[in-house]
Design goal:
Nonspecific Lipid-transfer Protein, Chain A; alpha+beta; six-stranded mixed β-sheet; 2 domains; 7 helices
Length: 198
Amino acid sequence: MSFILQHIEKTVNEILQNDPDLLANVTAMNDKIMAIELIGPGKTLYILPTESGIHLQSAHDGDVHVRIKGTPLGLLKMAGRRDNMPATFDGDVEISGDLALGQHLQRMIREMDLDWEELLSQKVGDVAAHQIGNFLRGFSNWAKDVHESMEQNISEYLRIEAGLTPDRTEIEQFIHDVDTLRQDVDRLEQRIARLKRA
């Protein structure tokens, strides 16, 4: 097992030993194998909960109860969510197997509140860890801005350039025209009914 994996396991287990509620959450998952597959780096992390904490492995030969597959950024976003994750998460994360177990793991990670920058600083030093943290936060903000800009540009293209979707004023005008037509038809029906009676 790599030094970083050993250090993460040790830190997580120290946190668990100091938090009986979190340790109870881990104990509830005892004998379940969870795989977290990182898209991009091509690495898979196996989490084996025990009664005393967790054991992390980079390889596992047996069955896996839940597999969470995603990009590192997608997995970080998923861990920070306040609601339970669906079977797919914004297309960045895919969950297969025991969904309830995956949701339990998500809640546990969210409640753990690990300081990843501190963990990294013990390997690469405080200054480098802080710079990496700033870079990742900046990258995350940039990716969010790019995503929002792309959504807006595609929406405008479909609405204005391609003419495939109407804008709000066109929709409102259409609804108004339908209402006017409905009123005209009602008045015409009433007129026809009066003429038939006469």
